[in-house]
Structure formats: structure tokens, C-alpha cells
UniProtKB/TrEMBL annotation:
<keyword id="KW-0677">Repeat</keyword>
<feature type="domain" description="EF-hand">
    <location>
        <begin position="25"/>
        <end position="60"/>
    </location>
</feature>
<dbReference type="InterPro" id="IPR028846">
    <property type="entry name" value="Recoverin"/>
</dbReference>
<dbReference type="GO" id="GO:0005509">
    <property type="term" value="F:calcium ion binding"/>
</dbReference>
<dbReference type="InterPro" id="IPR002048">
    <property type="entry name" value="EF_hand_dom"/>
</dbReference>
<dbReference type="InterPro" id="IPR011992">
    <property type="entry name" value="EF-hand-dom_pair"/>
</dbReference>
<keyword id="KW-0106">Calcium</keyword>
<feature type="domain" description="EF-hand">
    <location>
        <begin position="61"/>
        <end position="90"/>
    </location>
</feature>
<protein>
    <submittedName>
        <fullName>EF-hand calcium-binding domain-containing protein 1-like</fullName>
    </submittedName>
</protein>
<keyword id="KW-0479">Metal-binding</keyword>
<dbReference type="InterPro" id="IPR018247">
    <property type="entry name" value="EF_Hand_1_Ca_BS"/>
</dbReference>
Length: 90
């Protein structure tokens, strides 16, 4: 059984997210989306992380989507989004 799906920077992950969800593929944004899926922060998206991430993407409540987006913008994972973090992703 496959327990990990993709590693950080995986072209497969990037292409799938871009082609399936028509996401912008700026490098820093794709890396942050990867990190939001990678809840264990071990550089690998495991099957359960992939399913949870897709569930949020496809059927998440507004609150779940807000939390997911917050994870993307909180670059240093300190629980705050600073002006500098916001500008890096604009
Ligand atoms: Ca932060």
C-alpha cells in the first residue's frame, strides 16, 4: 500500500493541482499549498493528508477554507499573517 503521495516540489503534485483545479502555479504559492496539505510538515504528502486536503478543497465549509488559506499565507507558521508575508504572495 502506498502511504505517501508526493514529496515537496513534486512536478506531479504541481501539475495535478494546476490541471484539476486551474490553480495559479507561481512557485512560492505552489510550495505553500503543498505545505498546507503536508500537515506533518515532513516534506511528504501522505495519503490521509491528501484526502483531507482534497476534502477541504472540494467540500470544505467556509471556516475550513479560511483555515486552509490561512495556513498558505502564514509563511513562518507563527499563527499570524504579517504585511511582509502577505506581500510575498501577492
Ligand atoms: Ca506568520
Amino acid at each position: 500500500m502506498v502511504s505517501s503521495i508526493w514529496t515537496s516540489g513534486s512536478l506531479v503534485c504541481r501539475e495535478l493541482l494546476h490541471n484539476t483545479f486551474d490553480l495559479v502555479t507561481e512557485e512560492i504559492l505552489m510550495e505553500r499549498i503543498f505545505c498546507a496539505f503536508d500537515r506533518l510538515c515532513d516534506g511528504v504528502i501522505h495519503l490521509d493528508e491528501w484526502v483531507l486536503g482534497l476534502s477541504c478543497f472540494l467540500r470544505g465549509t467556509n471556516e475550513e477554507l479560511i483555515k486552509f488559506t490561512f495556513l498558505i499565507y502564514d509563511l513562518n507558521n507563527d499563527g499570524f499573517i504579517t504585511r511582509e508575508e502577505m506581500f510575498q504572495l501577492l
